[in-house]
Amino acid sequence: MSIPASSAPNLSAPAVPSDDEPDEIRAIWGTTVNLGETMKTFREFLRGFKIKYRIAHDRERGLRTRVLSSPEEGELLLYEGYLRRMRQTGETNLNLDLVNLAAYPPSKKLQNQLVKYPQEVIPAMDQVLKDLMLEIAEEDQQAGADGMRGEEGEEEIAEIMGKVYKIRPFGIPSVNMRDLNPSDTDKLVCIKGLVIRATPVIPDMKVAFFRCLTCNHTVQVEIDRGKIDEPVRCPRDVCGSPGTMSLVHNRCEFADRQIIRLQETPDAVPDGQTPHTVSLSVYDKLVDVSKPGDRLIVTGIFRSVPVRVNPCQRMLKSLFRTFIDVVHIRLGSGDKLGLDRSTRPAGGDRIPGVGGVGGGIDMDDNEEHGTERQRRTSKREELEARLREISRRPDVYEFLARSLAPSIYAMEDVKKGILLQLFGGTNKSIARGGGGGGPRYRGDINVLLVGDPGTSKSQILQYVHKIAPRGVYTSGKGSSAVSLTTYVTRDPDSKQLVLESGAPVLSDGGVCCIDEFDKMSDATRSVLHEVMEQQTVSIAKAGIITTLNARTSILAAANPIGSKYNPEETIMRNIDLPPTLISRFDLLYLVLDHVDEALYRKLAQHLVALYLEDAPETGGGEDILPLEELSAYITYARSRMNPIITEAAGDELVRCYVTLRKAGDDPRSNERRITATTRQLESMIRLAEAHAHMRFAPQVELADVQEAFRLMREALNTSAHDPTTGEIDMGLLDTDIGRQQRKLRADLRRAVLGMLDGAGGGTRGVRWADALAQLEAQSSVRVGTADFQEVIRELEQEGLVKVVGERDRRMIRRVEGA
């Protein structure tokens, strides 16, 4: 009886008769992918990939490539060079660019297999990598290469035998974390996001060590799919005792593990929706590579695991918990500014691995080789030459200020101040004095914009947030005190109390933009006192006592009381902010809506032109630096330049500070008003360093100090201006009371005491309203109700007068014997 052949596809790998192939073929379950073929193909790729393949592939895709200096350069074996570097440096990770896999003709299928079945393919690649490391080491030993002769070579090979080598693939197109579906489970995915929390290092058991309590027989059990099977009875035939196998922790093998919460970046969140978060599991050398606030590009395997209803029962929930097993991390993203290097670890950020973009956020030339170097060097050299050319322009300051928010009309001084804030000064730690390495002097510049509604304050903040390196944008009413420091929450995985970082901590090394600054509660604002001067956040909550770094520049915008700024009142009466907080801002700008018909007309024409055509003409010309180049310029200046103050600049700084202090001298009065404090001197130093940064100058020169002095003087003229005298008085910012007001209150105090003594105020007293009317009749200036109340309150506290009665019936009496 003949049975017809099945029409179903054959799911097993077809047996190819061969003498050297075993009878059994290893295949990925449920597929026709032969693991032996996969390993053979990957081996050929590592052995045969040349730079010319990538250049040809990039040209096919229409990408720019560098012209090779010689044909021999294109024939260079890329990955063999990487493997030799791994042996010399002791590195055990190889970063594998999947675009290179696609570019090499024999391995195009391998890229698809790696993306679809990473759990099976990556371990196979790890094995091939180790075999090739040994093979190349033996070849170099036979060829007598440096460091591989005789016993040295034997030691190197023995060392390679004892190491575990890993492939770290990257280079697939990134997807939004909202687009991760069940169909992506167990596949290789790439996502971008912002780190909001990282747990401490967790020990992850790899090999368990058991010992029998009866006969001391020991056995090792390896982890299998996240679980370890505990032996039920002693495996020794002589013993065989049930339930006597005990775990010995000290003899077990553990690996480092860390859980990271990755959140969508603000620019990727759809309107009106909350940002999504994804849990990442990182292992071994990827642990502690990133910290909260970093922007990451992560490649990993999308996993889903069942969740038990009760740990003591076998019943599972129908909803699975998802996370990503990370295989490759890259710091930083696209067009953002570079980070402040002084806020990063001492050795710099170095992602483990050799090859590709394994060099972290700031790849040096010696970190890049082969394909990456030939692809990136030409672009980098062109960009650096262009940036250097811009820095040599005589009008570079005006040009860059014009390029900052070009759609906003005028406001040149405000833009210059914010531009210098983006460049920043130099963070310094003085070794002498202070102990423990000395105090740290901040180089970050804080700017406050105060003004009428509709003067583009929020637009400037939004623009700065777009290009800020680790910027966090928050609003006054939408912020609580804990969101600006840290708050304690319970980790859903480990069930332990952990700290969630707030806005200033997340923007460590960047710019924190706070809008509607005046509408914050007092408890919220009080947190910023420490952040803005010491640049730390001290926490003592739920048994967690620590100090976190918040080395950030703060750019804030506020509205005056009653929306409209009143030029007749001091700045403190106009803004509902404490004087101690305002004095911590280096620059305070008043952005006012002036009454000027010509200005109205130009502003209206500018706005209408923006609606007609998106080509702003700020400053009367079209000479504007694009946003990407402006970011690159600031990044280059912050990372490469470290200007030092020259002797001439130091003398000029002293002279400018003395000039500001002398402005308070008044020959007609014995009392001197304070017009500048040491905070203004430090602000001038920071502004001068930022101006030198902008010019790509190695030293702070006279012109830098003069511009810093001009900006400081303009800011003081607006913020510390006393409307009653028309002079600068720093007392307004520090104590909310100017010299003129203090003098008025002293005169008022003497007049009140004289009036009570002369009118028999000790027995009968004087009515409140009568006293105020009598003082106003005697005075040549108007006596304010607030000043009168403050003087009476002070006299009452000193025990010189007593107020009896309520409201209109209040009587002021002199205390007898006082």
Q: Please list the strands of the largest sheet in the order they lie side by side.
A: 3-7-8-10-9
Q: CATH fold name of the largest domain, please? A: Rossmann fold
Q: Can you give the mean pLDDT?
A: 77
Count of DSSP helices? 27
Number of domains: 4
Radius of gyration: 35 Å
Structural class by SSE content? alpha/beta
Low-pLDDT stretches are: 5-19, 334-338, 357-375, 433-438
Give the fraction of residues assigned to helices: 25-40%
> What is the overall shape?
globular
Distance between the termini: 129 Å
What's a concise summary of this model?
This protein is an alpha/beta fold. The chain has four domains: 35-170, mini-chromosome maintenance (MCM) complex, chain A, domain 1; 182-334, Nucleic acid-binding proteins (OB fold (Dihydrolipoamide Acetyltransferase, E2P), Beta Barrel); 385-429 and 439-473 and 539-555 and 564-718, P-loop containing nucleotide triphosphate hydrolases (Rossmann fold), CATH 3.40.50; 733-814, Orthogonal Bundle (Arc Repressor Mutant, subunit A), CATH 1.10.10.
Describe the structure.
It is found in: Nucleus. It is an enzyme of class 3 (hydrolase). Its EC number is 3.6.4.12. Pfam families: MCM, MCM_lid, MCM_N, MCM_OB, WHD_MCM4. A 5-stranded mixed barrel has the order 3-7-8-10-9. Strands 14-17-20-13-21 form a 5-stranded parallel beta sheet. It has a 3-stranded antiparallel beta sheet with strand order 26-28-27. The radius of gyration is 35 Å and the shape is globular. α6 crosses α7 (118-143) and α25 packs across α27. It is 37% helix and 18% strand. The protein contains 27 helices and 28 strands. It has 4 domains: 35-170, mini-chromosome maintenance (MCM) complex, chain A, domain 1 (2-Layer Sandwich); 182-334, Nucleic acid-binding proteins (OB fold (Dihydrolipoamide Acetyltransferase, E2P), Beta Barrel), CATH 2.40.50; 385-429 and 439-473 and 539-555 and 564-718, P-loop containing nucleotide triphosphate hydrolases (Rossmann fold, 3-Layer(aba) Sandwich), CATH 3.40.50; 733-814, Arc Repressor Mutant, subunit A. The protein has 818 residues and is of the alpha/beta class.
